[in-house]
């Protein structure tokens, strides 16, 4: 049961993350499309430059065949950009083909003109022109082009057929020529893939069409125009699958590629505008539809103009109504703002009078406040001095208590030792052991033992008062110069010197007497340790005096 709940949770999480990613992707593409539209003049300039270069190539052609080939490239550029120019180029190509006497070139020129006639909605003229071409005169490499024009014109006739019987006839012919296109083209070619995807869409297999197109787009480096064609067909597949977000994404990709290619005869931007209209984005829908109509008009693509005219009035009327409502709302807002402005002026006048009174009172308060601050600062300094004095007294009192107690204990110990020493001398005298007595008097071992015990007692007492003295003192030194005593709980000579300084014994002479060293030795030790300081050497002993201060304050 828990496993099922976990699996369901992961599924919902995946769906949520996937939806969020798609939303981000769509927003990014929309922003990209807006940028492309803003830079349309740049892409159109590049298009005009290509057209100018191709026209120069045609004018400089060495012979009629070279001129025909150059015109073919120029026709390809004009086909989806300006139908009138493309039509005139096809007529010029036919004249050159007849002059050359090549039936293949004549057929190609007529097919070019038929393709333009189909784009302008002259379907029957297109069919008549195609029927005038003998199929045996069409070379194998042009047959896919012939089948494509046939499939396109019959497909459009099927879309606009008013009666069922005509629609069935045109649909059957469309399917027949679609099959011919797939048979005539290499299976890895763009024409075959697009036509097969269209076949799968029409026959209720859009999921297979998606797989086919996605793989083709991933495996091949497509031009902008080829990308636009694939994305448009892929959007049709997603539309049949009911995936609006994916369809929108592909329409955006197709629209971006169309505008970058500077073509004017397209469907993606119009369909995107209709989709945005359904989503309520009227501003963009109106803008994109206006661009599509303008491009179709400049291209003289009458078929696209007819399709756009069916959709634009609805979007335009709603857009105009929305603008009018916004204007009315803006007028009401302006009246409200005007009224509020008048009320605000009256309030400002009243506030001005009150502010003059308040300013005078504020000046008096500021004078009193400064005086109060001065008194407060003096009290603070006095309080700090008092606290410091109290802390020093508390610390000194604690040190005195500890050391007086230890002093009394030490005195008792020394009294006991002197009594033992007296008894030992008495025994030696009574036993007439003069030589042993002389040795005892001359020996310094007793003094050395007492000094050792005294320093151990001093270390023990000091570290009980300042248990972290060694660590805190080493923090004041450079890391590599740390002083570590041989035994835990004891101090060495350097540490004892600064322990005495911490207790307030800063005079080198007093320290020398306490530690039974020469004054020069004490100076050398103090100088040596100061040279190891991590910070200001002159401040080392002052910092030592602060060790353990916080503990005593507490």
Give a brief rundown of this model.
With 554 residues, this protein is mostly helical. The chain is built from 23 helices and no strands.
Order of helices and strands: HHHHHHHHHHHHHHHHHHHHHHH
Radius of gyration: 51 Å
Sheet having the most strands: none
Q: Would you tell me the overall average pLDDT?
A: 81
Low-confidence stretches: 1-21
Q: Give the helix tally.
A: 23
Approximate helicity band = over 70%
The CATH architecture of the domain at 61-184 can be given as Alpha Horseshoe
CATH level 1 name of the domain at 61-184:
Mainly Alpha
* SS strand fraction: under 5%
Q: How many E-type strands?
A: 0
State the shape.
elongated
Characterization of this structure:
- This protein is an all-alpha fold.
- Among the domains are: 61-184, Serine Threonine Protein Phosphatase 5, Tetratricopeptide repeat (Alpha Horseshoe); 444-553, no CATH class.
- It contains 23 helices and no strands.
- The protein has helices at 2-38, 40-59, 64-79, 83-100, 103-119, 123-131, 143-160, 164-184, 190-202, 206-219, 224-241, 244-261, 268-279, 282-299, 302-430, 434-442, 445-465, 469-475, 493-502, 508-515, 519-530, 540-544, 549-553.
- Helix 7 packs antiparallel against helix 8 (164-184).
- It starts with a helix and ends with a helix.
